[in-house]
């Protein structure tokens, strides 16, 4: 027999009625006095319950032989050995308890790890379900939108109106090819010392332009507008004397286009369209919520049609609206997140763009897939803006660090001019002259240095040649420039410069 605690043959063996195990009497009594339980089963146990086991003569002799003083005498110091034996018994008792605690810790740790793994699986599944619900909610929100009249309810553009528009556009394109726009000599462009400045009410402004009477040589009508409802019309580029404040009854202005010298077409963040009359100071609402979102562009190709103008919403929807009958027709609804758009001068193709993508839609073949303009955001950065050139066959594209010109006459849209690639500078805005021979780039560099660069197109090697670069803080006394607009009025050229809530008109001498 061996003690369940010390593992040695016991001198005085006792058995526990609970665990049926044999123990050294002194060890088990010490354990019970300290804990009051059976060391094996942990059941309640008292010393009186212990049962002493009678030994046979052979067992007694073996036990006494193993534990006899004869063996102890072999260690030369009996008292020391007795003390060591007592310490050994105590160590064995403590070791036994430690093994029990270790087993308990292992079981608890295994249970905790199992629960942790189960919780991680549940959390992962919950995260995946949440992402899936977000995607479904986004799709549902786009499809349903806010409870308001949707542009999907608009009637499609009648076929006879569409065919008339296509035929008239083809005739205008044929006529325009016979008339080439001549650029003014730009070799000695300088800033005029005297500049005209007009300060508007506080707000974040943007502008849109149209050529006066559709003639690129008779100047531009410029509309300055802000989301807080302020809207100004600039007719005289030199004096800046004819600016009119426009306020809307409802909705914030997201786009405003000068219709003529006394009327402005306005688009709101609610997708509504209206015309503001500067003479009567009244707004005539053309259509209510024809777009599922803010209006991002309005164009009136009056050379092609005098009855309809085109509007584009932030969802990419393209709508034709009758100026006289105030009726709107839906043409294309691609459900594309659109931040800017542009309509070709012939009216047959429309550009829709975001920071990452550009698509060209054909009005004459609206059922076909759009043309994707090649763009790699990782190399060229985000798209700043893009528009069609007035020469009719160029697409001008500005990204964060490059300026590109694509040839619309070829299906692959190759570069028509060698791209301009800038280092340590970000393009903020650009504009070109009507002949697409003069380029003005607005950039921001390190330390918020804003510069205006002037390039001239070199037809022989199809490149842009830098003529000069100017620090706007030095030349214009402005360290913030938001946008620029090139204006050619007869033989005089100007740059309209938007700086916060101020508009500057700078004459370019040549």
From TrEMBL:
Catalytic activity: S-ubiquitinyl-[E2 ubiquitin-conjugating enzyme]-L-cysteine + [acceptor protein]-L-lysine = [E2 ubiquitin-conjugating enzyme]-L-cysteine + N(6)-ubiquitinyl-[acceptor protein]-L-lysine
Pathway as given in its UniProt record: Protein modification; protein ubiquitination
All copies of domain U-box, residue ranges: 1-76
A single GO molecular function term of this UniProt record: ubiquitin protein ligase activity
Complex formation: Homotetramer.
Gene3D superfamilies in the cross-refs: YVTN repeat-like/Quinoprotein amine dehydrogenase, Zinc/RING finger domain, C3HC4 (zinc finger)
Main subcellular location: nucleus
Protein name as it appears in the record: Pre-mRNA-processing factor 19
Top-level taxon of origin: Eukaryota
């Amino acid at each position: 027999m061996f003690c369940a605690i010390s593992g040695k043959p016991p001198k005085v063996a006792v058995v526990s009625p609970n665990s049926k195990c044999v123990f050294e009497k002194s060890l088990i009594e010490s354990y019970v006095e300290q804990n009051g339980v059976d060391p094996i089963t942990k059941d309640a146990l008292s010393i009186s319950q212990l049962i002493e086991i009678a030994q046979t003569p052979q067992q007694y002799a073996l036990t006494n032989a193993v534990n006899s003083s004869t063996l102890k005498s072999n260690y030369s110091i009996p008292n020391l050995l007795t003390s060591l034996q007592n310490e050994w018994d105590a160590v064995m008792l403590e070791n036994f308890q430690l093994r029990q605690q270790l087993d308990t810790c292992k079981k608890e740790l295994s249970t905790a790890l199992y629960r942790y793994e189960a919780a991680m699986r549940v959390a992962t599944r919950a995260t995946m379900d949440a992402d899936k619900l977000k995607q479904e909610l986004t799709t549902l929100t786009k499809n349903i939108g806010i409870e308001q009249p949707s542009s999907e309810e608009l009637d499609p553009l009648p076929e006879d109106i569409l065919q008339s528009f296509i035929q008239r556009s083809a005739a205008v394109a044929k006529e325009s090819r016979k008339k080439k726009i001549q650029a003014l000599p730009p070799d000695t462009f300088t800033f005029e010392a005297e500049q005209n400045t007009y300060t508007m009410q506080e707000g974040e402004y943007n502008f849109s332009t149209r050529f006066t009477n559709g003639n690129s040589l008779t100047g531009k009508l410029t509309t300055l507008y802000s989301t807080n409802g302020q809207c100004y019309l600039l007719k005289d580029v030199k004096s800046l004397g004819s600016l009119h404040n426009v306020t809307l009854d409802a909705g914030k202005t997201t786009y405003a286009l000068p219709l003529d010298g006394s009327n402005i077409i306005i688009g709101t963040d609610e997708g509504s369209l209206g015309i503001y009359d500067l003479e009567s100071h009244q707004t005539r609402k053309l259509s209510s919520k024809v777009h599922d979102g803010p209006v991002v562009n309005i164009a009136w190709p009056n050379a092609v049609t005098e009855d309809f103008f085109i509007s584009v919403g932030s969802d990419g929807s393209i709508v034709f609206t009758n100026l006289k009958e105030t009726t709107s027709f839906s043409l294309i609804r691609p459900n594309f997140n659109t931040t800017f758009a542009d309509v070709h001068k012939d009216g047959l193709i429309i550009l829709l763009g975001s920071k990452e993508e550009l698509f060209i839609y054909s009005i004459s073949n609206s059922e076909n897939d759009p043309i994707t303009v090649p763009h790699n955001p990782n190399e060229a950065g985000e798209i700043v803006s893009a528009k069609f050139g007035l020469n009719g066959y160029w697409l001008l594209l500005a990204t964060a660090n490059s300026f590109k010109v694509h040839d619309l006459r070829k299906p692959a849209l190759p570069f028509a001019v060698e791209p301009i690639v800038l280092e340590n500078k970000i393009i903020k805005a650009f504009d070109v002259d009507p002949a697409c021979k003069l380029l003005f780039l607005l950039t921001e560099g390190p330390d918020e240095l804003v510069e205006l660069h002037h390039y001239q197109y070199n037809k022989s090697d199809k490149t842009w040649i830098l003529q000069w670069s100017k620090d706007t803080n030095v030349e214009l006394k402005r360290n913030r420039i938001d946008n620029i607009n090139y204006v050619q009025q007869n033989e005089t050229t100007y740059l309209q410069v938007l700086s916060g809530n101020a508009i500057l008109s700078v004459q370019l001498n040549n």
